[in-house]
Design brief:
The complex is a heterodimer. By secondary structure, chain A is mainly alpha-helical. Chain A is 64% helix and 5% strand. In chain A, the strands form 2 sheets. In chain A, strands 2-1-4-5 form a 4-stranded antiparallel β-sheet. Chain A has a two-stranded antiparallel ribbon with strand order 3-6. In chain A, helix 1 crosses helix 11 and helix 6 (95-104) runs antiparallel to helix 7 (110-123). The longest helix of chain A is centred in the first third of the chain and has 20 residues, at 172-191. Chain A is flat, with a radius of gyration of 38 Å. Chain B is 30% helix and 15% strand. In chain B, the strands form 2 sheets. In chain B, strands 13-12-11-7-10-9-8-14-15 form a 9-stranded mixed β-sheet. Chain B has a 6-stranded parallel β-sheet with strand order 3-2-1-4-5-6, sandwiched between helices. In chain B, strand 12 (329-332) and strand 13 (338-340) form a beta hairpin. Classes of the chains: A mainly alpha, B alpha/beta.
Chain lengths: 713, 432
């Protein structure tokens, strides 16, 4: 985050920005690219249509040299092409472009003049200062504004002098615009190390009768340009009755260099009205390197509630162990809102010694703060297992549960057994659910998941029947080879409950490593129900995960081989269509040989073929080999759109019609393929009248759907 | 010489507006609500008065997020399309139970209103930077949809303008305020993954868009579609209804010969932005290579690689990012889920799974910063760096060769062609 913006950074980036705008920073005028540039100029000099000339201007922005300037400059008076010409003129290096733009200002007026002046400003052409100065007197306010900004961007001594004079004498309708030029110029002065002249300009704008925003900008500049001497001016804004000035102070305080401002803010927060003090505290906390922490602590402990909440929140960023006692006290106080704020801050309170202090407080903690300290052990992941194990034995259920939760968040693999025993043999029945959640939390964060799974697998074997399923659930969350094998064993066990739990968990396993296990269970699971469940899980893996397409097709082939059920076979065909590839097409064609699957497999093969051919894959050989008879496809009429907004796309489809009952468009997006959106914002359809082998039919396709024509019967 | 002083009337005021009561739903926030004085009913004088500029499909969603906030009063809509003006007014008026939402077709009139504190800018990307900087100069804070800028120079001027004017700027990079993305970036930024080696972004189509000059069509009445204002800073071209898709108009750099796509800016302004956050919002990469095998590899000054990658993602939804360090990695996407190299990286923390990239939290972050004057997560400096990375990648794509960028001078090193592509003149009378 860039909450605090150091002043030097402001200057550095400002300088860099101006460098970007400075065409003088371009490299030397490159040699014309010769023939290429000449060809572009020939277009500009010809009777070519305007669109062609426009694109030529864009090309000259990259390839043009000073040799192109004169022809481009001729377009500056053309309302249609002036903006295109300036795209090139603004970036072509060298004085020719500068002079051409400047010369054009003598001939132009209105918007075209404004645009040309804007380009001069972007190029920061110092030679334009005199003419731009005269434009500060123009009768067109927009011209005055453009000239003032251009002079501000040029930002040299002459420009500054002109702008100051103009500001002093400007009529009301352009004064704010000229002030913008002044601020830009002052920023330039400051970036170049000329703080004195910058301050003069900022102060003149501050004193001028210009818009509030200009005064804000000038005030900010006046404060920062003065460096430490700007502190009184900054503090003055904190006292301002104007909300905008107070807000400016909040922002500028974050940028102000040094640490004197921090002490000053501490004083301000003590004296300000609560609603302002709360905001000042947030600004203080955005200066973590130099913040006066005691001031925020004082505000957190007593006083106005709004200020206290703000201060407690600020301690999340700038607090340390010195704040611990006070925050603990607030966190167990009767004020629920303050207590909650304090708890949230305590959970992430910075400071290396905070954790040690929390552990040291545990043995002597009062009952009301004991659960909170345990909770903090968990939230902050403090290693305090002995203390937590003691708390797990407490008579108070709330403390026991807090301790179990904290154990879940902190226990290591070595001590995982303490939670396992709480799950398999809880001393208090109402602790079991909390213990299970804690064990799950602990298990899934273990870095060595195989070791963790081994521990849990052992626990499954040794635990009573009631706990086995719970442990299997946790094993599935842990994942890995060991967990997978344990679940596979459970799925084939003699216990119906374990069969059910394990097959369900395997069915939603989130990794292709489960594929062999699921395929095996698809034929060997103890009941048909679990076999189907396993097969669906297997097909789901092929559908969901990234893998080489031959591998996916092979998985699909295996799935079809082990089932005769239409629903599962259709799922396989869906996967093939979702991931079209030559192997998937091959498998779909093979599936056409199964009588029960022929119709769906044929449709799938055509869809895959269509998708592949739209990507440029030649599938004609495969289709012919598969016995797809060539057809004579004729498009009679095709309309695309919605309601009365229809576009005739017959021509487009006719051009794409081949000897298969499908059409591949140039793009999957109908709007792109059919030359635009005929009905923006509406649901569109493509309606086609066609003939296949002389038989007429009609078909309707949803927007962007694949175009595969049913064979007329 | 032609006389083209045909300035748009600045005072085409369509309907007056007066702010009244609102209702809202509480939303998560960073700073406790009571610290900012919004825990109970918010007095009208303390509400943040918002206007909308260019509210289309995405903007309507954003506006819904604003209207949920009880300390917001939405009072005005500006849109060059009458249909949109009316639709947004209806939405606001139904919310407040009155007919006070004012309508404008020239955003300068809206910006002239002294009662408006901030604006929601959700025009097409063609207008984003120009409107944002005009808003800043008019003293408004702003939530501005992305892509924010059209080129490198605009990115830099945007950041400088927000600094100079002291305005609060929030780019519409709402993933910075979603817990799982924030957590993933924190892991990378704070060294939990070890020394960071690679950050991956999914640009979803590495091409640069330029909308071109289409066949002229009859221009609608100005009150129905103000074509001149729609074009705004884009170079002139005749009216064609196909160009009215503001979401895609002039998005993505617009280099000659690349009249397609726009992916790097469209998605890069999100996923590259997250990568930037992961590397600590440092200056953008200094080297961008030509794309190869569906990847464009850029390199930061410290050697960390920023990789624009089309494929190879764990299926975690759109806008995936991946951060790889010497000791671990994390990948996250719009499903709200993330995958970690080790669960230990969670360190006991519970990260909420919020899928679908809602903007509510991002809007709240913006509104809180309007009050505190702190920097929101999608601040102008952050947006500037992320957009420069996207623009520079676009330039490497267009030139199909390596380009090297100097973050001090903000120029490509010894590269005249690339340097000329850093900026583009705006159509008169617009400027940034």
């Amino acid at each position: 985050m860039l909450a605090n913006r150091p002043f030097h950074h402001v200057l550095a980036l400002l300088a860099a920005v101006l460098l970007v705008a400075a065409t003088s920073a371009f490299a030397d005028d490159p040699k014309s690219s010769g023939a290429q540039e000449q060809a572009l100029l020939d277009v500009l000099r010809s009777d070519a249509p305007a669109d062609e000339k426009a694109m030529t201007c864009k090309k000259l922005a990259i390839d043009g040299s000073s040799a192109s300037v004169a022809d481009l400059a001729k377009l500056l008076s053309d309302p249609q092409l002036a903006s295109w010409a300036r795209i090139a003129l603004e970036v072509i290096p060298g004085e020719a472009a500068d002079e051409a733009l400047l010369a054009a200002t003598d001939e132009l007026d209105g918007k075209l003049l404004v645009g040309t002046i804007n380009s001069i400003g972007v190029r920061r052409y110092a030679g334009a200062a005199t003419k731009l100065t005269s434009r500060l007197q123009d009768s067109d306010a927009e011209v005055v504004s453009a000239a003032a900004v251009a002079l501000g961007l040029i930002g040299n001594a002459d420009a500054g002098k002109s702008l100051r004079q103009a500001l002093a004498a400007a009529p009301a309708n352009v004064r704010t615009a000229i002030a913008e030029g002044c601020v830009l110029c002052a920023e330039r002065f400051l970036a170049e190390g000329n703080a004195d002249d910058a301050i003069v300009m900022y102060d003149e704008v501050r004193q001028a009768n210009v818009s509030d925003q200009r005064i804000l900008e000038a005030t900010r500049g006046a404060i920062l340009a003065r460096n430490q001497e700007g502190l009184p001016l900054l503090l003055e804004q904190f006292q301002s009755p104007q909300k905008a000035m107070f807000q400016l102070a909040l922002g500028t305080a974050r940028e102000f260099p040094g640490d004197k401002i921090d002490q000053a803010l501490a004083t301000e927060v003590a004296n300000a009205a609560p609603e302002r003090a709360a905001l000042i505290i947030q600004a203080m906390a955005d200066r973590p390197q130099t913040v006066v922490l005691t001031a925020i602590m004082n505000a957190a402990e007593k006083g106005d509630r709004q200020v206290r909440v703000s201060a407690i929140d600020a301690l999340k960023r700038v607090g340390n162990e010195s704040c611990l006692d006070a925050l603990l006290e607030i966190a167990v106080s009767s004020d629920a809102e303050l207590a909650q704020s304090a708890k949230e801050t305590l959970a992430i309170l910075p400071g290396e010694k905070v954790d040690l202090q929390i552990v040291s407080l545990l043995p002597k903690a009062e009952r009301k703060s004991y659960p909170l300290l345990i909770e903090l052990v968990g939230q902050r992941r403090i290693d305090a297992v002995p203390e937590l194990l003691k708390a797990v034995e407490d008579a108070d259920q709330g403390i026991r549960h807090a301790a179990l939760i904290a154990l879940g968040e902190t226990v290591s693999l070595k001590r995982l057994s303490v939670l396992v025993s709480q799950v398999t043999a809880p001393k208090h029945a109402d602790d079991a659910a909390v213990a299970q959640q804690a064990l799950k939390t602990a298990s899934i964060r273990m870095p060595d998941r195989e070791a963790c799974a081994a521990e849990l697998t052992l626990a499954v074997k040794q635990s009573p029947a009631t706990a086995k399923s719970n442990l299997l659930e946790i094993l599935s969350e842990v994942g890995g080879t060991t967990a997978l094998q344990s679940l596979a064993s459970a799925a084939k066990s003699n216990d119906p409950e374990l069969q059910d739990t394990a097959s369900r968990l395997l069915g939603k396993w989130n990794g292709v490593d489960a594929a062999p296990v699921l395929l095996d269970l698809a034929t060997t699971a103890p009941s048909e129900k679990y076999q189907v469940r396993a097969l669906r899980g297997y097909i789901g893996l092929a559908r969901k995960f990234a893998m080489p397409e031959p591998e996916r097709a092979e998985m699909c082939r295996s799935a079809i081989a082990v089932t005769n059920k239409p629903a599962e076979q259709q799922l396989v065909l869906d996967v093939l269509q979702l991931h079209p590839s030559p192997p998937s097409l091959k498998l779909a064609i093979e599936a056409m040989q199964r009588p029960a699957l022929k119709e769906q497999a044929t449709q799938a093969a055509l869809v895959i073929a269509q998708k592949l051919s739209s990507k440029g894959v030649d599938v004609s050989g495969q289709l012919t080999q598969a016995g797809f008879a060539k057809v004579k496809l004729e498009i009679v009429k095709a309309l695309y759109g919605a309601g009365s907004q229809q576009r005739d796309v017959t021509d487009v489809l006719q051009k794409q019609a081949g000897d298969l009952p499908l059409i591949s468009l140039a793009s999957e997006n109908y709007n792109t393929s059919f030359g635009g959106d005929p009905a923006p914002g509406s649901v569109k359809q493509l309606k086609v009248e066609y003939r296949i082998n002389g038989k007429a039919a009609e078909a309707t396709f949803a927007e962007n759907a694949l175009i595969v024509f049913p064979i007329p019967k | 010489m032609s006389n083209t002083n045909t300035r748009v009337p600045r005072r085409r005021f369509l309907k007056a507006a007066v702010a009244t009561a609102s209702t809202a739903v509480l939303a998560p926030t960073i700073i406790p609500s009571s610290a900012l004085g919004r825990d109970g009913a918010v007095a009208p004088s303390e509400r943040i008065v918002i206007g909308g500029i260019g509210i289309g499909r995405r903007g309507t969603y954003d506006l819904g997020c604003f209207l949920e906030q009880k300390d917001v009063q939405f009072v005005a809509i500006c849109d060059v399309k009458e249909k949109q003006r009316v639709a947004v007014k209806k939405m606001a008026d139904e919310k407040y139970g009155n007919d006070h939402c004012a309508m404008y077709s020239d955003f300068r009139e809206l910006l002239d209103r002294s009662d408006i504190d901030g604006v929601l800018i959700a025009t097409g990307p063609n207008w984003h930077a120009t409107a944002a900087m005009a808003a800043a100069r008019a003293g408004k804070d702003m939530y501005c949809e992305k892509p924010v800028t059209k080129n490198i120079a605009q990115s830099l001027v945007l950041a400088e303008t927000m600094r100079r004017t002291g305005r609060v700027f929030q780019a519409g990079t709402q993933r910075r305020n979603l817990p799982h993305f924030a957590f993933a970036c924190e892991l990378a930024r704070t060294g939990k993954l070890g020394k960071l080696k690679k950050v991956y972004a999914h640009p979803a189509g590495m091409q640069a868009l330029m909308s071109g000059w289409l066949v002229p069509e009859p221009q609608p009445d100005k009150d129905v579609v103000d074509w001149d204002m729609y074009l705004g800073p884009a170079a002139w071209r005749p009216y064609n209804a196909r160009l009215l898709d503001g979401f895609n108009f002039e998005k993505g750099g617009g280099f000659v010969g690349a009249f397609k796509g726009g992916g790097v800016l469209e998605w890069g302004s999100h996923c590259v932005d997250l990568c930037q956050w992961a590397v600590g919002d440092c200056p953008p990469p200094v080297e961008y290579n030509a794309p190869k095998d569906g990847q464009l590899v850029a390199r930061y000054e410290n050697g960390t690689e920023l990789i624009f990658r089309e494929t190879g993602w764990i299926p975690l939804g759109s806008c995936p990012v991946r951060f790889e360090g010497e000791t671990g990695w994390v990948e996250a996407g719009d499903s709200g889920k993330m995958v970690l190299s080790s669960p230990e990286l969670l360190a006991g923390r519970k990260v909420a799974e919020i899928g679908g990239y809602p903007a509510t939290y991002h809007v709240r972050d913006f509104l809180d910063c309007v009050k505190t004057r702190s920097q929101p997560k999608g601040n102008a400096d952050a947006a500037c760096n992320a957009h420069i990375a996207c623009h520079a990648a676009n330039i490497a794509l267009h030139l199909d060769r390596q380009v090297k960028y100097d973050n001090t001078t903000h120029q490509f090193i010894d590269d005249e062609q690339a340097n000329r592509m850093r900026s583009e003149a705006l159509r008169e009378p617009w400027r940034v």
